[in-house]
Design goal:
92% helix; mainly alpha; single chain
Length: 75
């Protein structure tokens, strides 16, 4: 193997190592973003559940209020 081919091989190996390092970094960043999105999704799901409970409670209270009006003798 002549020196030129060895240098080319060395450069290719260096590029592959650099590419591998970039890919590992990109993967770690993607995993971090995914974890953040998962946490955001969980937070939004919790908020939706809370709002649905509040809505159900309000609906129940309004139904009671409407029921009280129905029992009034307005004639």
């Amino acid at each position: 193997m002549d020196l030129d081919k060895l240098e080319q091989l060395e450069l290719r190996v260096e590029r592959l190592v650099e590419q591998n390092q970039r890919m590992k970094k990109d993967k770690a960043e993607a995993q971090t973003r995914l974890q953040q999105r998962d946490a955001q999704c969980k937070s939004l799901s919790d908020r939706i559940q809370r709002l649905e409970r509040e809505r159900a409670a309000l609906r129940e209270r309004l139904t009671k209020i409407i029921g009280q009006f129905e029992h009034l003798d307005l004639s």
